[in-house]
Amino acid sequence: MSVRVDYCGEEFVATPEAPLTIGRDADLEIDDNPYLHRVFLKIYREHDLWWLSNVGSTLTATVADKAGLFQAWLAPGARIPLALDAFTVWFTAGPTTYDFDITVDTPAFQSVAVTPEVEPDPDSGATTVGRVTMTPDQKLLVVALCESFLRTTYAGSGRIPSSADAAARLGWTVTKFNRKLDNVCQKLADAGTRGLHGGPGKLASNRKARLVEHALATRLVTDADLALLD
Q1: In sequence order, what are the beta bridge partners of 92?
Q2: Does domain 3-104 sit in CATH 3.30.460.10?
Q3: What is the pLDDT of residues 6-18, one digit of tens each?
Q4: pLDDT per residue over 55-66, tens digit each?
Q5: Are 7 and 28 in contact (CB under 8 A)?
Q6: CA 121 to each of CA 117, 133, 136, 165, 216: distance values in angstroms, whole numbers, following the listed order
């Protein structure tokens, strides 16, 4: 009975007798990143369930199952049960976004495969994902932001491009990019996605990081969408 964590090709194990800590100075040392907590996340067993707990003070994590059917935003002090067999975790510390995979040997529940509601609109060229409809330009923007992660076949880390770099990748002006970024974030926020609202204290980099984590967690974009880029 254990939980395995795969990060950068290395495997780390949590057992009922030995919980696993994750951070800058922990059982799983993610990176020597000053923006990362010494101990950020903890995997442990309690009440016959495995738990993932955010023991940090400022950073958040996005947790999703492999099929993109479940997503949770893990704020400081929060925890979730690892009740399914496999998860991916994303989080951002400073300029770097990290991800790692979790496998539970004896999950409490089994996920049911369901085809996500993703339908093309033949008239507008827009894509509907659940309740959110994205225009072709909005989809391109998300793909450009997630490109580093979509091209990587293993859990590890990646960089989210600056607005200027992403705009240049798409052949847009920065003004156009920022306008469409605002539109995408507002659209997802209206649909209930947290962490994408603008305003004081909400830096553009933070909103982009949350957008990337959400897009990857919900399979809003996949590696097949890389074909959309030049």
Answers
A1: 97
A2: no
A3: 999 899 999 999 9
A4: 999 999 999 987
A5: yes
A6: 12, 9, 11, 30, 22
